[in-house]
Design brief:
Blueprint: H1 2-17, H2 23-54, H3 62-82, H4 97-132
Helix pairs in contact: 1-2, 1-4, 2-3
Length: 135
């Protein structure tokens, strides 16, 4: 659960602390960010699936597994787009704009999802304990 919250925030901080000055540096930053994000998403996906197979956990749910699978696929597509030589095809080139509008909001959404999942799991466990008389 800690990794599920910490990794998106670590990536958001990595992006926010990066200081690029050229379009090529922006493109390299996007490729580097998504390389790290793809590795993290793959690790979290494997962790989620393995924890789910061993039992239910706060972040071992199908929605979290789908989130990491989608994040992995998106990151791979962005690595392909921005690795190597980047060519600006449009008049306005901002390769890191996608990170600007998604890095921190994604971390916030994942954090809220983890808290909500923890609350739901706690309520379910208490209800189950109450029904079985294990108070």
């Amino acid at each position: 659960m800690v990794a599920t919250v910490a990794i998106p925030w670590a990536l958001a901080v990595y992006f926010m602390r990066s200081h690029t000055t050229t379009i090529d540096e922006d493109a390299r930053l996007v490729a580097a960010f998504h390389t790290k994000a793809a590795i993290a998403a793959a690790a979290l996906l494997v962790s989620t699936v393995s924890l789910r197979l061993r039992g239910r956990g706060v972040t071992a749910t199908i929605p979290f597994a789908l989130t990491w699978a989608v994040a992995l696929g998106f990151s791979v597509s962005q690595i392909r787009e921005y690795s190597g030589h980047y060519e600006c095809r449009d008049g306005l080139c901002m390769p890191d704009f996608g990170l600007l509008i998604t890095a921190v909001p994604f971390a916030v959404v994942v954090s809220v999802a983890v808290v909500c999942s923890a609350v739901i799991t706690t309520i379910e466990r208490r209800a189950s304990d109450h029904l079985s008389g294990d108070e």
